[in-house]
Amino acid sequence: MRLEDRVAIITGAGRGIGRGIAEQYAREGARVAVADLEAATAEDAAAAIRDAGGEAIAVTMDVTDENAVDSGVQRVIDTWGRLDIAIANAGVQHIEALDKLSLADWRKVTAVHLDGAFLLTRAALRHMYQSGGGTLLYMGSVHSLEASPLKSPYVAAKHALLGLCRSVAKEGAAHGVRSHIICPGFVRTPLVEKQIPEQARELGISEDEVVRNVMLKNTVDGEFTTVEDIARLATDLAAFPSAALTGQSFVVSHGWHMG
Ligand code: NAD
């Protein structure tokens, strides 16, 4: 087991990619705090990990709420006495053209991705700097590196996470903290299922065409990336033993984005 005795907090881990990482981390021996806005999904994911023989707690938190993030991270420290890995994964999507987008919707999306990642980072670093180090992982996207139409606040926030990740690598190095950003292509989670009909409506094409000609068009093999692919990489990055690897972005997208 490659993460034995490590303590991890993962935001947005009630379902989708975050839940997959939480389950994989527990199988690798980590104690996992499943943080999510939705208490029921967080509880469900944590219970499933415990049922499978792992160690997990549910932490209900809105990542855009400063006090909730600080107290959620503190609860992890109070429970297990340490924090080794923090993953800013919580995310939302909003499909709309720029000229129609409200400021409220812009702020809603950027706040979850960017403010949420900052608040988790700050709370985690305050503990990691005292304890001698740790790993910060950010859930970016191919949209951290290129744009698609109708997703401007998401694309802007995901690009900004590259900068946050690199800042953490620079500032954290002296304290034993490493950081990386994982950039998945399309993964068939609820976040993506929801946008298939929305994109079909906005673009005036069928749902099947959205999948084939929009989402997977530029992959090398027409395949979705999977939750398991992302969980495997998140494990490899957390287990890597030195700062030889820090501040990097890793694209996992069936070749949609290369470079
Ligand atoms: P999902 O919708 O399945 O899960 C997202 C989780 O985040 C949900 O459990 C939700 O309750 C939680 N969440 C939302 N707002 C929150 C908040 N304010 N505070 C706390 N939790 C909150 O989505 P997913 O596909 O698993 O996405 C996870 C991450 O991966 C996101 O950052 C997303 O942008 C990124 N990503 C997803 C894909 C994809 O194709 N699915 C591709 C690239 C990147």
Keywords for this structure?
259 residues; alpha/beta; Rossmann fold; 8 helices; globular; binds nicotinamide-adenine-dinucleotide
Write the layout of secondary structure elements.
Elements: E1 7-11, H1 16-27, E2 31-36, H2 39-51, E3 55-60, H3 66-80, E4 85-88, H4 103-131, E5 134-139, H5 152-172, E6 177-184, H6 190-203, H7 207-215, H8 227-239, E7 248-252
Parallel strand pairs: 1-2, 1-4, 2-3, 4-5, 5-6, 6-7
Helix pairs in contact: 1-8, 3-4, 4-5, 6-7
Bound molecules: nicotinamide-adenine-dinucleotide (NAD).
Nicotinamide-adenine-dinucleotide binds next to helix 1 and helix 6.
Q: Outline of this structure?
A:
This protein is of the alpha/beta class.
Descriptive notes:
This protein has 259 residues and is α/β, with parallel strands linked by helices. The chain has a single domain, classed as Rossmann fold, CATH 3.40.50. It has a seven-stranded parallel beta sheet, with helices on both faces. Strand 1, helix 1 and strand 2 form a beta-alpha-beta unit. The longest helix has 29 residues. It is globular, with a radius of gyration of 18 Å. The mean pLDDT is 97. It binds nicotinamide-adenine-dinucleotide. The site of nicotinamide-adenine-dinucleotide has 29 residues, from helix 1 and helix 6.
Q: What is the radius of gyration computed over CA atoms, rounded to a whole number of angstroms?
A: 18 Å
* CATH architecture verdict: 3-Layer(aba) Sandwich
State which percent range the strand residues make up.
15-25%
The parts where pLDDT drops under 50 for at least 5 residues are none
